[in-house]
Amino acid sequence: MFDGDTDRAARLVGTPRFGGLLIVADHASNRVPDDIDLGIDAGLMREHIAYDIGVAAVAERMARKDGIAAFLGNVSRLVCDTNRHADDPAAIPERSDGRTIPGNVGIDREARLSRFHAPWHEALDRMLAEHPPMLTLILHSFTPQLASDPDSSRPWQCGLLYDRDARGARLAQPLLEADGLHVGDQLPYSGKDYNAVIARHFENEGRPYLYLEIRQDLIADAPGHDEWATRLSRICNEVALSLT
């Protein structure tokens, strides 16, 4: 299903297992296919508007362990944001953190969504049905400072998100705080608003999940990747066992 084809909406690291841990990182890549021109400076593709900095490396390290697999987005969220509902204009954003994305203006949105959004969600549907995990970690990162809101800061080190089902968040919060972390509840975003993935694949199906955002400067280098991969492997195991 994921053979390295550059048009693929997702890539898989590791082998999904029944009763294992699945990591879902929909904003893991800043890749733009060759036939798409976003019309922005190339330097912006290394910033948070293009992808969730650090999450791919954390997920890949976690997926080195037996029983853990990572389902990773394979195009930039500026190309297609699979954590937005298909009818949300932000699924193919024309602006992001105050930046205009001119290459997304006036395009055939349905064609773009059919190429990336629908296949990504369909592949995740199949994986969850064929290899039901004990727990799914939905992994994101966030910037400490938005360019469009320079007077605000985001001091917490990680945020737990959820909509109706707070089971995973409630179990994980004391474990994260025991590591000395400042944990934001429903910060920096609310899982009630940015909930396309959890609504379709988890809450509506009753599947347990842990939705976590890590401040990107904490996972911007190899030591941070290793630290958080070790931490999350341990915490996810504890959460999963508590849910059984």
Automatic annotation (TrEMBL):
Keywords for the protein's UniProt record, in alphabetical order: Hydrolase
GO molecular function terms attached to this record: hydrolase activity
Highest taxon of the lineage: Bacteria
Name used for this protein in its record: Putative N-formylglutamate amidohydrolase
Species whose genome carries this gene: Novosphingobium marinum
